[in-house]
C-alpha cells in the first residue's frame, strides 16, 4: 500500500520548487493537454476578434479572410509556444523560475507579479465563461451554483496536476474530437451567408489577434514541459497539437458567428440548435475546466518563484477560493483590456528568452538559483520590445492607451495595416538581445574573466 502511494507521489508534480520535477509526461500526454487548451469556449466567442472589428464593433474582414488570418497567426504562434516549451524541459524548472536565468532572481519578480495578476484574471474569466455557458446549456438556474461547481472542480484538478493531464489524454480528448467533428458536419449543412464579403486590408490585424491567443500561454508553458521526457516531445506537442486544435476551434467559431449574423453574444446558439447539439455542447462546457485548472495551477507555481518552499497544494486551494469569489462578484468585461495589456508584455519577453537561451548564455546553462545575478541588458531588450508593441497597438486601457497614442503623435508614427504588434515587438526584442549578447561575447573575448579559467 505504502509503495503504491510512494509511486504515485513520485509521478506527480513536486510540492515545492526545491524538489526535483519528475520527467513523466510523454509526447501524447502533452499533446492531449495542449490540444484541449486549444479548444475553448473563449475560442468560439473570441473568434470575432480575428475579423478585426473597428471601434464600433463592425467586422472589417470577410469570414474567409478571417479563417486564413487564423491559420497564419496560429501557425506562427504555435512555433513561438514551442520555443517557450523547450527551456523548461532542459532546465527542469517552471516558467517564472526559468526567468531567474534570463533576468536574475530579483528582476524575475517583475514578470512573475505580472503573470500572477493575469493568471488570476484569466482563471476568474474562465469560471465566468463556464457558468454562462452552463446556464445556457441547462436552460437557467442560479449562476452562483455554476460558478461554485466550476471552482470546486478546478481546485480538485490542481491538487493532482500531472494526473489531470493524463486523464485528458485517456478520456476527454476523444470526446472533444467527436464533438468537434459532429459540429463541423452540422454547421456546414446550415445555410451560410456570403463568407467573402468585405476587405482584406486588415488581414494582419486579424492574424495578430490569433497569434496573441497562442502567445498568451507562453508564460506558463514550462510549468508543464519541465515534466516532459524530451525536448522534442515538448516542442512538438506545444506547437503542433495546440496550433492544430486552435485553428479547428476558431474556424468553427467563425462558422457559428456567421450563422449568428455576426452577433458574438449569440455565438453559442447555433451549437444547440442542431440535432443532439445540447449533448455535444455539454462536452465543451465540462472540458472548459482544464482552462481554469491550467490558469490556477500556473498561478500557484508562479507564486512559488517568490516563496520557493510554499506547498503548491495550499496555494491552489487558496487561489481556487479566490477566483471563485472574484467570479461571483466582478464584472470581468471591465478587466478584459487590462488582461490583454499584461499579456502583450510577454510577447517581446519571449523574443529575449529565445535568443538568449538558444544562442548565448542559455547554451551553457542558466543560473536559476536564489542568487542568480541581475542582467539589466536583458531588461533593456525586453523594454525595447514592449515599446515597439505599444507603439503599434496602444491597447484599450485608458491612461496607458493615451500615453502611447501621444507617443505616436510625438514621433509622427502611424501604424500601417500590415504591421503585426506581436511579430514586430518579438523581432525588436530578439534583435536587441542578439546585439547585447554579441557585445558581451566580444567583451569576454577581449577581456576574459580570470575566474572562468580556474
From TrEMBL:
The chain crosses the membrane at residues 33-51, 63-86, 107-132, 144-163, 170-188, 200-222, 234-261, 267-286, 314-332, 338-360, 372-392, 418-439. Gene3D superfamilies: Hydantoin permease. Keywords: Membrane, Transmembrane, Transmembrane helix. It is a multi-pass membrane protein. Belongs to the purine-cytosine permease (2.A.39) family. It comes from Actinoallomurus spadix. It is found in: Membrane. It comes from the Bacteria. This is Hydroxymethylpyrimidine transporter CytX. The gene is cytX.
